[in-house]
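ok so i was messing around last nite and threw this chain in just to see what happens. nothing serious, just curious
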Amino acid sequence: MANYTLRQLAYFVAVAETGSISGAAGGLHVSPTAVASALTELEKVFGTQLVVRRKAHGVSLTPSGSYLHSRAADLLRQADDLELNVASGGAELNGPLVIGCYSTVAPTVVPPLLEWFADNHPKVQVRVLEGSQVELPNRLLAGELELAVVYDLNLPTGLNSVVLYEAPAYVLLPADHRLANRTAVSLRELADEPMILLDVPPAAQHTMALFDRAGVEPNVALRASDFELTRSLVARGMGYAILIQRPVVGQSYEGLPVVVKEIRPAVRPIRVKAVWPETVRLTDRGRALLDFARDAGFGNAQRGRIPGGTSVVVRS
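result:
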């Protein structure tokens, strides 16, 4: 039998995340004395110093405290999960699920996920946060998200992952472009033409790397930080673009036509992954999402052929 309580762990995690006993007490609506006592009892139980208390400067975690923080936060999530789902015998999922999604991937991935949860587990409160390739992994490792859907590019260490689909880069052209009737085009054929660069990481870095490997210097005429703005500029005939996500519709927001061309020689596709911290055990809600997402055929969804009737097994 453990000699510590979940309440003591909750107080400790609050201290670790706020950086002070008073801050934790305020968030928990308890007295600072109660929080300090919980820390003292935990240090007695584990036989080691967990925090360094600095008067007027908050607290900092010791190496033992950092280890306990990661394990305790996971244990508290599991305890919450147990409380939410035990009434139904685990047959009905319940509770919050916070996920992140890279902004240009979100229109492909998020709607089917939300629809599936609404149809199959309506008591799960799914919250989706869109963000950048840099921001989302950091928020995962900080414990703000349970899962995130990102490109397999420049990811930090310490993450587990599952590949959801692969998406090769392509050339987007205005409908009246001189190469619009071609099946595929090479980057060298486009070298002298104005390019509209989707200037957000990792898209911009990936695009420039493609040209570098092809030995071509692109003529970057315009830069845009929005996916749909990039498509609209192409549709207006202001240049071409290299993109990864592929909408089903062949029109811009304004209803102007655009055409998609494969790149030849073929380029290596980019993998889109669901990622989560190695130190975290996914909740039943997170595992349900992962099981659905692995089999949902998001790559087909970009071409209008997402399969229906996917069965999902929630593993223990």
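not much to say yet. Confidence is low (pLDDT under 50) at residues 303-316.
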